[in-house]
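Sharing a chain and its predicted structure for anyone who wants a worked example. Both blocks are below, sequence first, C-alpha cells second.
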Amino acid sequence: MSAAPRALETGPGALRALSLGRWSVLLDPRSVLVCLLLATALAIAIVAAVLAGEHPMPIAALARVLSGTATPAEDLIIGQLRAPRVLTGAVVGLALGLAGALFQSVTRNPLGSPDVIGFDTGAATGALVAMLFTGGGVRTTALGAVAGGAGTAVAVLLLASGRGQAARHGPDALRLVLVGLGIGLGLAALNSLLVVGSNIYDAQSAAVWLIGNLAGRDWSRLALLAPVVAVGLVLALLLSRRLSVAELGDDGAAALGLQPGPLRLAAVAVGVLLASSAVATAGPIGFVALTAPQVARRLTRADGPGLPAAGLTGALVLVLADLAAREAFVPREVAVGVLTGGVGGLYLIWLLGREWRKGHA
C-alpha cells in the first residue's frame, strides 16, 4: 500500500488528495501543518504541566513513572496528582474546542458557542440539581449535566425554529443565538437560586464547582470522560465535510444534494454531548469553546469548521490556562475558570466590537 499525494488545485489553500489504495481523502496542507504544530505544542505543554509545581520534578522522574520504576513520592506527585489533572484538562479542552467549532459552524456566527448561547449553563443546571438533591456522585452529576444540556438544546431549538420549521429547514442561525442567550441568562439566575437555597456546605461546593475547576480530578473522572469525548470526536469528524458544504448557505447546500436541517440537528446533538461531558467533569469553564475555533481558523485560514485544529487549540489553551492558574499566584491557586473568564471576557468584548463595526461598515 502506498501513499501518492496529488494536487487538485493550485495556489494558497489548495487541497490535495492523499490516496491509500482504494481510499483517498482531501487534505489542506496548511491545516495539516498547523495541526501537527498544535499537537507538538500540546505534548510539550502536558509534559511541562506534569513536571512543574511546588515540588518540581525532572523529566527522568516522568520516565520512571511511565516505566513503572518510580519512587512512591514520584508516583504520588506525578502519577496520582498531576497527570490525571493535566490529561483531564486536555480532554476537556478538546471537547470544548470541538463543541465550539460545531456550534459556530451551525450558527455561522463566532458568538454561537455553547457557553454563550446557554448550553453550558443548562448542563450546569442539570449537574447542580444532581449535586444538591441526589448527593452528587460522579456518575449522577455527569448524567445530570448531559440531561441539562440536552434539555436546554431541545428548548432552544424548538423556540428558535418556529412552528413546523424544524422538521423542514432546522433552526434559524440568528434566532438560535438570540434564543440561546435569553435562555442562558434565565438558567444562570436559576443556578444562583439553587445555590442560595441550599445549606451552607452544599452552597460552598456548588459555588466552587460553578466557577470551573480542574483541581482534584483523578483517573476515575478521566476514565468516564475520555470514551464519551472519543465518540463525540468521531461523530464530529464524520459531519465535518458536510458542515463545510452547509456553510455555503442553505440554497448552495441544497443544490449539492445536502439537507441542512437534519445536518444542523445532528451537529447540535454532537456538540451538546461534548459540551455537557466537559461541564460534568470540570464545571462550566467559560470562553474556551468561544475562542479556540476562532484562533484555529486564523491559524489554518481554511474554510469550514476546522474541527481537528479547533479541538487541539482548545486542549492547548486549557492545559496552559490551568498551569498558569496553579503557578502564577503562588502560594495561592485559583480556579482555571477564573483565568479563562478574565481573558475570555476581554476577547468577547473585542469580538462584539468587531461584529458591531462590521454591521455598521
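Comments welcome. Residues 72-107 form the longest helix (36 residues).
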